[in-house]
Amino acid sequence: MKLYSTLTATKEDLIVENTSITMYVCGPNLYGPCHLGHGLSYVFFDTLRRYLEHQGYTVLHVQNFTDIEDRIIETSHETGEAISNLADHYIQRFLNEMDGLNIQRAHHYPRATEAIPQIITIVTDLISKGYAYATDPGDVFFSVRKSSNYGILSNRSPDTMRTGTRIEVDPNKADPLDFALWKSAKEGEPSWESPWGPGRPGWHIECSAMVTQIIGNQVDIHGGGQDVVFPHHENEIVQSESYSGIVPFARYWVHNGLLSLSEGDSEKMSRHQGNFVSCEDALATYPADVIRLYLLSSHYRTPLAYNENSLAAQQRAIGRLRRAAFPAQNAAHQMASAIDSQSYYTTFSEAMDDDMNTPEAIATLFDLGHAINRDIDSDKDVSAQSEMLKSLAGILGLTLESTQAVNFDATADALIGVLIELRATLREQRQFEAADLVRTKLEALGIALQDSKDGTVWTTIIPS
Question: For the structural domain made of 309-400, what CATH number should be given?
Answer without folding.
Answer: 1.20.120.640
